[in-house]
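Researcher: We're teaching a course module on how sequence relates to structure. For the next exercise, students receive a sequence and then see the predicted structure as tokens, so they can try to spot secondary structure elements on their own. Here is the exercise chain.
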Amino acid sequence: MQIENRFLGALPPDVAQRCAELGTMRTFVPGDVIALSGAPAVTVHFPTAGAVSEVEEGLDGGTVEVTAVGFEGVSGIASLLDAETEPFLRVIEVPTTVLALSTADARALRDRAPALHALIHRYAHARLRGAGITIGCNARHAVHARLARWLLRMNDRVGHGDFELTHETVARMLGVRRPTVTRAVALLTNAGAIGTGRHSVRIVSRTTLEAHACSCYPDSRDLFDEIYGDDGGRKGDI
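Model: And here is the predicted structure for the students to work with:
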């Protein structure tokens, strides 16, 4: 069975096939919570369409997205590094399909397959670099530029530019207040980069959106190309 996931595609065919045999294809809809922060780490997910958002929850009730994992990677990587609990809330913001694999099966396969073990560590290194990019972006860049980057990365992952998103959802992902998102959306709308409807955002001009995105976008887009040895094969096109 062919699984459209770059991480699995970078493995030897027999190892990727074994992952497919051990796993189960699952489909999620926006709003689904697939793991709670602090809960036992029981499942890893390899997205084939859509994306899984991994979200930090503050003690004050605030939230901010740490990363979104699409077809380029693995959601739940901490469990493959032997973490016993989930470090983040993992939630679905766009329709998403994944190969779900139990942590126990994934770890057992990792311990028998040196190629999987090595790829896990290379991927974790790239994720650490990605976390650094996100921290710097959140600290230095304007919200409308961060929003543009977020929409572009989601477009890269899902292959289309129509998203069912509320301002509240975007505020939760960016870690800002809803009125701040409203102003950022208005700026990008007036620039002709996006259009909005009731609970929806649509990329009108990807070129314009790229012009308004922060400088972190190319770095975050190309983050995994080195470990996979390709350019991703699925960049958004509007």
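Model: If you want an answer key for the exercise: The mean pLDDT is 91. The first strand starts at residue 24 and ends at 28.
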